[in-house]
Amino acid sequence: GDLNVKVPVDTKDEYGKVAQTFNDMTFRLREAEKARRRLVADVAHELRTPLSIMQLKLENAQQTGQYVPPEMLLRLHDEVIRLGLLVEDLHVLSLAEAGRLPLDCKPLDLSARLEQVVDDVRMEAEENGLEMRFYSNTKPVTVMADARRITQVFINLLTNAIRYTPRGGKITVEIEDRVIDRNALFACVSVIDTGIGIPAEELPHLFDRFYRVEEARSRHTGGTGLGLSIAHHFVRAHGGFIRVVSEPDQGTRFTVYLPLGNDI
Ligand code: ADP
User: Is 251 in the pocket of ligand 1 (CB under 6 A)?
Assistant: First the structure.
């Protein structure tokens, strides 16, 4: 339908109010429609290239009737798995963007959860020549949260820290209880790396879907460009937010703020 309608009523009476409400609604619908189109375009763009490469390889194998080496099948299979994960990520991301991500919130000991997550990625960090540390000033730190979604947030931040930090670097995870920000109380988790950093001009786009800093892109690091969008929207769904401080060639600090609910 045509969303470019606007009721030209400009009075202060009931008609004016109804007209204003109607115009606000069509404006919001237009914005939602724009967002939906962007999403569809992004998805098409992300899927097109890998799908056509797979199609070519399969058709080629079929037409030449040549023996297909198992490594090629393995690579194709990996690629199919990767695309499946991408579609799954896009699905939860679009739910979260629309504010419709189902959350199963329960009291969660952040400190214990983080310790576990850090242990889970420690191997990968060490294989990449990175030192991994975990600091907690208190425990337990209890927040109302969906353990699965929050775990995903920390995994995304930690995977990035590993990916964008050269060998010999250090990754530090810190948890702080009862941080006050704008008159509200938060539990804060920071993931700090000594990696390549992010130029200041890139920071405003960092949480955009499929956004990748040029240098990282050229490194072919195998990410999807959705990790930070997902982290951002999952944290928002919990009423929190993420801050980032970064210095090129020095490192990056992401801090997740999760509300503690009770007033100061
Ligand atoms: P990707 O799958 O590309 O890692 P993300 O959404 O997780 O996608 O991150 C977006 C971009 O932000 C990355 O491509 C990278 O350029 C930059 N980035 C994210 N985390 C870090 C970090 N810890 N250090 C440096 N750059 C980072």
Answer: no
